[in-house]
């Protein structure tokens, strides 16, 4: 009786498609995560190089360099503010 029950369970393949699709989806999720991590690191390097080039060019011309972590002494500067103050 136990042998027949085990054979009946092992011979059924009704959930096999669902299991295969689940494994495929998990594999694609891992692959996508790896690709996006790699692309993100490459993109970060590109933008870092661009910022360095811009800062080098700005330093050579005597202009202020771009520093995303600094707000210029806590006072944001806007061309709009200068324009508005010139109209008064």
3D structure, described in words:
By secondary structure, this protein is mainly alpha-helical. It contains 3 helices and no strands. It has helices spanning 2-11, 16-61, 79-87. The longest helix has 46 residues, at 16-61. The radius of gyration is 30 Å and the shape is rod-shaped. The protein starts with a helix and ends with a helix.
Structural class of the helices, strands and pairings? mainly alpha
Low-confidence stretches: none
Alpha carbon gyration radius: 30 Å
Q: Strand content of the residues, in percent?
A: under 5%
pLDDT average, as an integer? 77
**Helix count, per DSSP?**
3
- Silhouette: rod-shaped
| Total count of strands | 0
Helix residue percentage: over 70%
Q: How far apart lie the N and C ends? A: 97 Å
Order of helices and strands: HHH
- What profile does the largest beta sheet have? none
Short description:
The protein is an all-alpha fold and 88 residues long. It is 74% helix and 0% strand. It has helices at 2-11, 16-61, 79-87.
Key terms:
88 residues, mainly alpha, 3 helices, 74% helix
Write the layout of secondary structure elements.
Blueprint: H1 2-11, H2 16-61, H3 79-87
């Amino acid at each position: 009786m136990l042998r027949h029950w085990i054979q009946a369970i092992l011979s059924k393949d009704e959930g096999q498609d669902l299991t295969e699709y689940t494994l495929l989806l998990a594999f694609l999720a891992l692959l996508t995560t790896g690709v996006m991590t790699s692309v993100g690191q490459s993109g970060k390097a590109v933008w870092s190089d661009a910022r360095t080039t811009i800062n080098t060019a700005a330093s050579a011309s005597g202009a202020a360099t771009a520093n995303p972590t600094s707000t210029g002494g806590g006072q944001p500067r806007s061309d709009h503010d200068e324009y508005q103050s010139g109209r008064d």
